[in-house]
Batch of 3 targets.
Target 1
Amino acid sequence: MFKKLLTSILFLVPFSAHSVDVPITGNVQSRCVITTDTPGVYGNPNAYTLTTAAADGGVQPIVRYDVTLADAYYAQITTPTSFALSPSLSDTVTWTGSTEVSSLSDATNMGSYETNKITFGQTTQYDLTATGSTWFKSTSTATYGGNKAFPGGTYTANIEAVCIAK
Amino acid sequence: MQKKLLLMAVLVFWPSYSYSESIAPYFGTTPNAAAGGTTWDMNTLLPTPPGLDINGVIYNYTIQKDVNDSVDVHVQNKNANDTGYIFRETDEWGVGSLGGTEIRKVVPVIPNIPRTSWGQGSIEVEGPGSIEDPNVVYMYKVDPCYDPQFDPNCPGYEIPIPVIATPEIEIYDATQDEYVNLNDDEKVLLEENEKTVEEELDEDEEEEEKRKREYRLAMLAETNAAQLFAENQRIQQMNEIMQNQVNNTYLNKTINGGAYNETITIVDKTIDDNNIGLRNNFAQQLLHEQMVQEQYN
């Protein structure tokens, strides 16, 4: 009886417990790279308007999308709806903006990007069906409420360009 | 001591071989080929150094077309050494693509296309459309050591050796000598044949000489016999005249007969020995014996 009990005890005694966490790492290189090609500049044709139109002394911002994987991404570009930096404004600002294809690297496969674009609000979406580079040019206009003069100071607004995987 | 160690370390790690700046390959780009129009000459566009290899073409232009039209634009270079094109990139602006859109393109080129193959370049528009502000730039790489003799540091450089005219030396090859390759019977046959040929040649020569002699004699007999006779007569006359002149040089003398006695006499009746000559003779003898003995020493 004693012998049987001893055997059972020996089986029940656990060996030293030990565990290891094995890491798994990986890098995913983006197949869609967004680069600022030309920063925009607001011109000030009158006291209550800021615009990137070249005719009004502005510079249109240009953003470049480099895609190395075809038909895998949408390009979404949203023109500004607020200032990132500005003097204190007491009235509302009305925003308008648009985006269009400026240049492309493949006429055959990118030529219809512009005609196939979708616009909703301040955002324009392009279906990036081909590999290569595409330059998008935006315009942005800010009009101060009630045709009031913008307070003096520096105004900065940002265009948001994103690459959305399909 | 530290300075010496530093100097030694520098010498040890000093590279034994390095390219000089002048032979390192370098890259460059041409100016806008389409600045003067839609066609251009590559010879005036590309720089002059040999070893130039075009490795890419960068171009951009703005298309003008209706959205419902299809237009093809070709950026191209003719093959200067053949028909067709050595380079041709086509942009197909289909229905839906808007006019006023710019294309910016970088097109790699297969390396090592000979420079001479790059013919006239052009931008050609095919269809109802046009282009604006074309800009075409060729990227190239220049290898100064394309000709290894460009610089002594180039791989494959050979020290120039002046050209010296070498005399042509005919090398005897026994394996090509048919005489060596003949067997004994063939050799005997060949020798006999050569002997027969030589004899025939000798006979021919003798016969030729004989014919010539006969011809000369015949000609002499026919044409010059009279002249020879007259000339012989003249020679005979001249000989007679000369003989008469020689005869005139002798005097006509009469020698009387009788005895002609000796008129010189020795007064003291004796001739003394020449002692000086004796000594000289003796000395010569001694010298001779000495020389003879020297050959045995």
Note: The interface with chain B takes residues 101-108, 111-112, 114-116, 133, 135 of chain A (CB under 8 Å).
Target 2
Amino acid sequence: MSIRGFYLTVNDIKIYCETNDGPSKDPIICLHTAGRDSRQYHDMMELLKDKYNLIAFDMPAHGKSWPLPANEVVNKFEDYGRWVWDVCKALEVDNPTIIGCSMGGDIVYHMAIEYPVKAICSMQGADYTATVNDAILELLNHPYVSCQHSHLEFSECLIGRATSQERRDFIMWGVMTEIGKTKQGDLTMYNGFDVRDRMSEITCPVLIIQGEDDPIATVEMAKATASRLRNAPVTYKGIPEYGHFIAVENPEKVSEYLDEFMQTLGV
Amino acid sequence: MLQLQETINGPEAEKFLNYYYGKFFSGNITLIEDEEKVTLTLHKGKILEVVDGIPSEGYDVGVQGTKAAWDKFCTHKSLSVATNKGNELNLSTLGSPITFRQNFNVLAQLIRVYAGIR
């Protein structure tokens, strides 16, 4: 195990980060899925430790990071974008490659529109993800409904059929450790994510990795998103039989595709 | 539906009762496909009886849809997918939103098993 944890103070909030201390000069910044934390990148950090410096951090109110003042959470993608950029600045990273999955896979598109990133990799992301019912959103943070239990099948249905039991168990453990208010903020953000009319502003290289056994963040959504990237070099890599938590489900294939992509960037 | 009762009470009982928290469920589950309506009465996760129609005292929880919606459900077998607003040909929910969410796993697993024998 070659993963090191540390804290940064960003905007007066303690943010927990993990890195593999890999050799590349410019780090790859890794964004986790809704409600979860940086542990989703442990396997990729191990697989890529001899090539790339990966830094994953827990978003505010996730994992071991502190929430916002008065225990508030982030629920807008523009605010998440500012947090990601402020963390990059605190890490003294000027020109990051940013990768993310699901919610993180959405946010990377916003980052490429608004911030001077080197490149992005979107896993199970899209430019429009209004898919969650309002009743479910409201009841993620309700005194009579357990977020962890009521939302179990939602995560379960997203896991690809070829995923190993050990990795499936870790994903399901993630559901059981979620904070209702945080998850509600994340899925509110996810539900309100729509940058379709700004996708042509993206000009940096884009890698799209799509676990194809994902019935909610679908192949069709990823390909529709790719079609709107008119001014960016786009590489699409589909991974059959693996699903939504692709960085956890098949880190070997994701690392292979990310390595190929980074080499095209000259990193 | 009698085969569903035998399966939930038999070979699927352990998973249904414990992994999907069926052991905490007592009440009615109503399933509607087009004009066909069936209500299953459960006590602590065991199906006690299956009757045609809807409960006279009103729905506890349930799911309804057209034959086409149920056919589609049988291809993925996920209630989350079948109620996701981004998808077409969805199933719709019966009962109060809170009760439905409280018992989501129970219902999801019951109709997943149903899809396997439908």
Note: Chain A touches chain B through 24 residues (CB under 8 Å).
Target 3
Amino acid sequence: MSLTSVTAAQIGAGGSALRRRLFDYLGWGLCGLAFFLLGSATVWILVVVFLRGLSALTPAVLTQVTVGYGGGLLNAIEGTVVLAVGGILLAIPPGLAAGIYLSEFGQGRLAPVIRFLVDVLVGVPSIVIGYFGYVTMVVDLGWQFSVAAGSVALAIIALPYICRTSEMALRQVPRNMREGAYALGAGDGRVALGICVPMALPAILTGILLALAIAVGETAPLIYTAGWSNYLWTGHLIKEPIGYLTYAIWAFITEPFSGAHALAYAAAFFVTLFVLLISIFARLALDENMFWRRRNRR
Amino acid sequence: MNFRRLTALLAIVAAGTLVVIVAFLMIYAWPAVRLNGLGFLWQNTWNLGSLYADPITFHGQQILPGAHYGILFLIVGTLLSTLIALLIAVPVGVGSAMFLAEGVPHFLRSWVSFFVELLAAIPSVVYGLWGYVVVIPFLGHHVFPFMVKWLGFIPFFGGPSGSGYGLLTAGFVLFLMIVPLITATLRDALVSQPVFLREGAVALGASRFETLRTVLLPATRRVLIGSSILATGRALGETMAVLMVSGNALNYLPGNIYTPISTMASFIVSQLDSALEDPTGMAVRSLAEVALVLCVISIIVNGFARVLLYYEGRQTKAA
């Protein structure tokens, strides 16, 4: 395959020096402007969320449950933790197993199909998964709005991410590690779970953390599976709705009360802070990982 | 069962989720699909019928008198808001990817890129909050009247500037949500182009920017197309942010770019409560049909992008 073929004339090397220099400046200027636009949008969003969120924080937000449009967010914080952790725990076994299969044993015809389906599953809109959960679990199975339905919906969202990040992580494990283990007589399970997964564990955990951040930030799949509740969770898996932070953001900001707005800002603060911290941590872990790999190659 | 088989089985379960989702939506929506026919896609009425009348039997289905389901306005709203988002996101994404790949010192690149890619990590509902509280008043009071005044001669840019809720606002918020996808993918592709391409261009007398524009960028064309299609898929299915800034129009097509719209995804959230009022259940099933249409569209779009990127990956490895 020919990559590209260009002539000196196409590159512009034939034009006048002044014109070329002007075009260079103009081009870099436009590219810088595009970057500046995105960077300032990031800053704008974060500043709005953090400033308004911080000014809305009171001890009551953390210690009380929601009462009408006031009170606190204790029920929502608890619910977000329960739903997100539940969803991730449900997604880890099939996600990790699929990752192991794709990376270790996926030489046949099945693997490309699975990889394709999982990649497409990433792109299925979260509201579609929410509606699927509503139709199957809330209505057909009669679970009603519940922790179980919400967690399963979040698990479907998290599953493809965990699968693909685990696969990528396991692929980084050097081949000779596997060969050594097999040569010593270890079986498939021993090699995968005893050698490859522990070696790739930092990267796998990073992927799981990123999936957790996505689960914490999701709203659409939960609205019609988890519902909303002003009370603390009493431990029932089905037939008991549960609150969560992203619902508070959406539902309370559109109410005409300043107390409701304060709760929405506080909820947005918690969710964004959590997602931000995980993203930064993941990036640090990734950098360290690359450092580790570079050092080992030498 | 041996370990290999077990992981294969669980992998099939993971991948099969997609099939199960489509199958169950189809089963649930089937009565609505039969009732609504193809007109569902190009008629412009979403009408639950008379909620207080007795259900009538129509083509063997129980429905409310006057009930009619057509989602043309949703399809138009979804496609137009995605189109606007894409029209802004592609040039801005390419520009910022070029800047990040070649315009930033090496040791800074990873963290500066991270800063832009944070846009992808911010949850949809936080975009919605920001859009609702900050962007809508800003655009509605300051930018849109200004645009009507100075750009009004362009078709669809004139006319009433509205309140800030609408097509352009939704497109703008969607643009910010999808642009990191394009920027990150393209930046990686630009950085990983073989050195001999750069060397060749420099040997022909190209400056740094000319190398980037005439050699490196064309070489990554397919990555740009693939990531733009992936970004399209994400924009088509975005729910919460669009729900909070689009104005949630019902049954009319936008007259200009400031008009309120609805998208398929946001409509499902905003309408389920009222659809549940329908005792025959046909409204809920028709919403399931909306979800099904959305799901099929996103599967086609994402599948196409994955195939494209897959072939690109194979060729890069071969080269």
Note: Chain A touches chain B through 98 residues (CB under 8 Å).
